[in-house]
What we know:
Strand content: under 5%
Strand order of the largest sheet: 1-2
Number of helices: 7
Largest sheet: 2 strands, antiparallel
Number of strands: 2
Structural class: mainly alpha
Order of helices and strands: HHHEEHHHH
Number of domains: 1
Radius of gyration: 17 Å
Amino acid sequence: MDSGRRVIPLSLLKMKGTHNTTRQGGDAPEIKPGDPSLSPAKRYAFPKPPRVNGKPVLGPSGMKEWRHIRRLMEATGVITQVDHAVLFGYCMLYERSVTKPAAMTAALLTQLRMFAGELGFTPSARERLRRPIAD
Length: 135
């Protein structure tokens, strides 16, 4: 887990007039994940929902959320086959929060938020995805 201050998206810093290139750097290049030896179509392929014996593991709410995320994120190439388990965990917790909201504890909501952050579903998480990894 990240420590320290949360990353503030550059767009918010620019809107507020507090963006300073000496502190935050310029606009970082977009990072495209995936295995470079694969064709772009396969490299950035969005994962398919998990199935057991041909039947979906996720319930209706989880599948609806998976399709919603796919519609929004597929073109970005950010979520790939490698992220299958993280996306599955997010959709399972999302489904639980919708179908049994009373069963959602603070710990489960924290896990849901952490999955969302890992997948880039929050403004600060999207900003971290754009920044190059320091060597």
